[in-house]
Write a sequence for this structure.
């Protein structure tokens, strides 16, 4: 994900690796700014991978855009990721344009650091999270971690239903590499990649079946993902509910540190402004 100050646009690549970046102070501040506006112009990379090693894949790029007042906006299929984005200080026009991405009768989430929501939008839910970055993390080999593919999605969705690790939908697997652990042929743990910025990859959907917790499966899967991320000369980050003390403690033990608090708001537009430009 990059900032284009001249054009006044922010971009988010939600799958695929960006340029190698060691991640100094400037990079960390970019993460904060860019995650406050998840996407105005987005690219979804659909994997077409023959590799079984995390982090080594070929991708085909797909983009779907709509025209709003001659400015590009992007929409991502609702079965991939339920997010939309705005600038960190959105104008009334930005909110009007957002209705082209999140039309009435639908909903999506935005990650922000304290955005005032106008009365034309309704907040359905809010979650307080902390953003953690991998300052001292180290990738580890996990021989039992197997790559998960499209044919595993049904089992992955069932595991998500049991554990509620956060948004994981029918096509979320297209956003990055996912790995899992099977016991007696049953998927009992998984973890994967979601948001991809230049030099950074988000780890997400970390979960273990209630019957197999306490065995270190989540730690090993996260370690395997970190190994793939570091192989691409990138750094890892993630988001955790502020109330999930056990997960925060686990990630701190793995070398992550809390960077800043953020809010995830699930919104739906309540009314279409009469002056909304025609999308065509």
């Amino acid at each position: 994900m990059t900032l284009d100050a001249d054009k006044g646009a922010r971009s988010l690549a939600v799958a695929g690796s960006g340029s190698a970046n060691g991640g100094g102070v400037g990079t960390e501040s970019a993460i904060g700014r860019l995650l406050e506006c998840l996407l105005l112009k987005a690219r979804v990379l659909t994997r077409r991978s023959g590799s079984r090693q995390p982090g080594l894949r070929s991708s085909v790029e797909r983009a779907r855009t709509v025209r709003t007042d001659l400015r590009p906006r992007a929409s991502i299929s609702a079965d991939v990721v339920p997010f939309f984005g705005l600038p960190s200080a959105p104008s009334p026009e930005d909110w009007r344009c957002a209705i082209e991405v999140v039309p009435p009768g639908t909903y999506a989430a935005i990650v922000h650091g304290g955005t005032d929501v106008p009365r034309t939008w309704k907040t359905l839910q809010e979650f307080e999270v902390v953003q953690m970055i991998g300052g001292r993390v180290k990738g580890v080999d996990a021989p039992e971690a197997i790559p998960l593919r499209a044919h595993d999605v049904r089992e992955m969705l069932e595991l998500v239903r049991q554990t509620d690790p956060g948004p994981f939908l029918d096509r979320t697997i297209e956003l990055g590499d996912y790995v899992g652990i099977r016991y007696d042929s049953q998927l009992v743990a998984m973890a994967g990649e979601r948001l991809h910025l230049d030099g950074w990859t988000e780890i997400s959907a970390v979960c273990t079946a209630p019957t197999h917790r306490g065995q270190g499966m989540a730690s090993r899967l996260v370690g395997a993902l970190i190994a793939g991320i570091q192989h691409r000369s990138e750094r890892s980050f993630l988001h955790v509910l502020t109330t999930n003390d056990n997960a925060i403690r686990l990630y701190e033990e793995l070398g992550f540190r809390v960077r800043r608090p953020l809010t995830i708001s699930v919104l739906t537009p309540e009314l279409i402004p009469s002056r909304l430009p025609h999308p065509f």
Notes: The longest strand covers residues 121-134. Residues 1-271 form a domain with the Aminopeptidase fold (CATH 3.40.630.30). Confidence is low (pLDDT under 50) at residues 1-75, 275-280. The chain has one domain: 1-271.
